[in-house]
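S.,

Sequence below, as promised.
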Amino acid sequence: MERVIITGAASMIGAALVEECLKNHVEVLALVRKASAHRDRLPQSDLLTVRDCSLEELAFLTDVEGYDVFYHLAWGHTAKESRDNPVLQEKNIRYTLDAVELARRAGCRCFIGAGSQAEYGPVEGIISPDTKVHPQIAYGIAKYAAGKLSRKLCDSYRMTHVWARVFSVYGRNDNADTMLDYAIKQFIKGEAAYFSAAAQPWDYLHEKDAGKIFYLLGEKCEASKIYCVASGESRPLKEFIKELQDAFGEGAECKFAESEAGGSVYGLQADVAELVQDIRYKPQISFAEGIADMIAHKRGEYDEEGKPVDSYVQ
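The prediction came back faster than expected:
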C-alpha cells in the first residue's frame, strides 16, 4: 500500500489513520470539509495532501488517479438530533456510493467503509460479524444499507470491499458530549457526573488502536469481508466509569441510578477473533493508559467553568 485516499480525515479515527499512514511512509490524500473545525488535527508532511471536499462534492471529483486504497470514514448528520432522521441519513447512502465511484476513478484496488455497531441494534450477548442485524434508528439502517449497496457496487468493479463496523472508540479527539467527555467536563467543574446503573457490558477501543486497525485492513486484506472493530475486551460500563473517576482523582464524583430488577441487559461485546487473525494485530492501549491521556488533554480543553477553549495542551 503506497497511496491512499481518506474521507473524514480530520475525524477522530481519520486523524489517527492519517498518522499511522504517514508513520509507514504511505502517501495520503485527505478529503476534508472546507468548514471543518478539526483540520488542525492533521500534521504537516510532504506525504500528506489536504483537499477541500465535502460529501456532496465526491461525485464531481475527477482529477485523482494512481491510488491503492480508499477509506470512506466521512458520514453526515451524526449529531444526536439528526441520527434518527430518515431523510438526512438516506443521503449518506448516496454519498457512500459516490465514494465507491471515486475509488474506481482513482484506480483503487480496495474500498474500506466505516460501518457501525448500530447496524446490529440491541443484542444480548457477543456480537460477531455474522450476528443478525436489526438496526433500530435511521443512522444504523443507513449504515447497513450503505454497506450492502457499496459491496454490490464494488463487486461489479471487482474491487475488494471491507466493511468495518466500529464499536465504541474514545480518545483525546472524542466528540463533545459523549459519556466520557461529559464526565470529565463535570469533574473539571467540580460537579458530580450522573449515570444510569451502567450494568451493561461495554467495549472501549482507543483512537490510536482504531487508526492502526484501519491502516492494517488496507495493508493486509485481500478478500471482501465484514469486521467488528473493537478491543474485544468487554466489562460492565460501571467499571470503566469508576476507573475514569479514579484516574481523574480529587474532585471526581459519580452518582449511579439504582439497577432495575429483571429484563435483558443489552450492551457491547464484540468478537474480534477474525479481525485479529486477518490483520495480525491486537489492540495495545489499555483503558487506563488511554483515559489518562484523554484526561490530561481535556483538562486543557475546558476552563474551570467547563467551557471549551480553543485547543488541547500540547
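Residues 86-105 form the longest helix (20 residues).

Coffee later?
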